[in-house]
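Dear H.,

Thanks for agreeing to be a second pair of eyes. The structure we're designing against is below in token form, covering all 292 positions.
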């Protein structure tokens, strides 16, 4: 592991991860119907400067008068000072959060989980595969790699959604598509509008993009996040195209609950998603089929 990366990733957190810390909302961006990105800043200036995480980790967000929810971090650890979380409105707690505005207070504890093994991904090709809201935790990895672009070989981003309206981070992804140092391929389930057809490289399922990737599988690490039910199909297609099973990692961020492995809701066989994960090698999903 390179010394600079080691300093970034392994520097001890200066806070107790069991304690929530007050944050203020600095920005709210509507990304798609029922999907918003919230930017938070810690009220403690010293904590705000030192707090850091790994791509793929998550936090427990306290929504005042509603409760706590686990949310994956979508901002990169290379850009400190702001914690960004993308949240879909799916229940009472997230409904309350979606009504909040810049200047409102909340609280964050964490980060939790293991994150993607970026220290071993460096020096190799990187293939990032996202389905739907799965682009959110992978956004952290995308910008981590692009901010350290010289440390990676080729980078591919594959992203699949239902239609163009449900694409998250549209403007960011459009700009990435124009860059020469990263290749982006997009799939939409159905192309019914001009925007759909302009956006999509493939009309159909996300796995249809995998054969279009021009990488040496043996020299490539793969990061996958999306609906867990899709992992068996994505994994099957990756293996068929020669990607080593030991170099494929998936996120089970949707199984988070308390963040510390005490409530038991995230238990999968003999593993706990919030302690042993949320990032797991594909091998685990095959040997613990209840994961997906």
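And this is the sequence the design step returned. I haven't edited it by hand at all.
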């Amino acid at each position: 592991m390179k010394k600079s990366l080691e300093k970034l990733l392994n520097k001890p957190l200066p806070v107790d991860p069991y304690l929530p810390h007050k944050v203020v909302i600095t920005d709210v961006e509507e990304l798609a119907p029922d999907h918003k990105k919230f930017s938070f800043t810690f009220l403690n200036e010293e904590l705000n400067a030192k707090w850091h995480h790994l791509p793929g980790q998550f936090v427990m967000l306290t929504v005042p008068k509603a409760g706590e929810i686990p949310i994956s971090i979508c901002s990169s650890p290379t850009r400190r000072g702001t914690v960004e979380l993308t949240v879909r409105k799916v229940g009472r707690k997230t409904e309350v959060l979606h009504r909040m505005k810049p200047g409102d207070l909340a609280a964050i504890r964490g980060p939790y989980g293991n994150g993607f093994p970026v220290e071993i991904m460096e020096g190799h090709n990187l293939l990032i595969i996202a389905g739907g809201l799965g682009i959110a935790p992978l956004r952290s990895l995308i910008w981590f790699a692009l901010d350290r672009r010289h440390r990676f070989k080729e980078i591919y981003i594959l992203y699949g959604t239902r239609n163009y309206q449900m694409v998250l981070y549209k403007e960011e992804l459009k700009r990435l598509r124009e860059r020469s140092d990263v290749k982006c391929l997009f799939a939409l389930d159905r192309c019914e509008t001009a925007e759909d057809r302009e956006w999509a490289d493939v009309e159909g399922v996300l796995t249809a993009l995998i054969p279009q990737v021009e990488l040496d599988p043996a020299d490539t690490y793969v990061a996958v996040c999306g609906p867990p039910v899709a992992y068996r199909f994505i994994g099957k297609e990756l293996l068929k195209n020669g990607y080593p099973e030991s170099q494929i990692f998936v996120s089970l961020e949707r199984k988070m609950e308390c963040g510390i492995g005490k409530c038991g809701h995230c238990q999968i066989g003999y593993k706990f998603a919030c302690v042993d994960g949320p990032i797991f090698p594909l091998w685990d999903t095959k040997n613990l089929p209840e994961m997906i």
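Two observations from my side: Residues 135-147 form the longest helix (13 residues). The two ends are 32 Å apart (CA to CA).

Warmly,
E.
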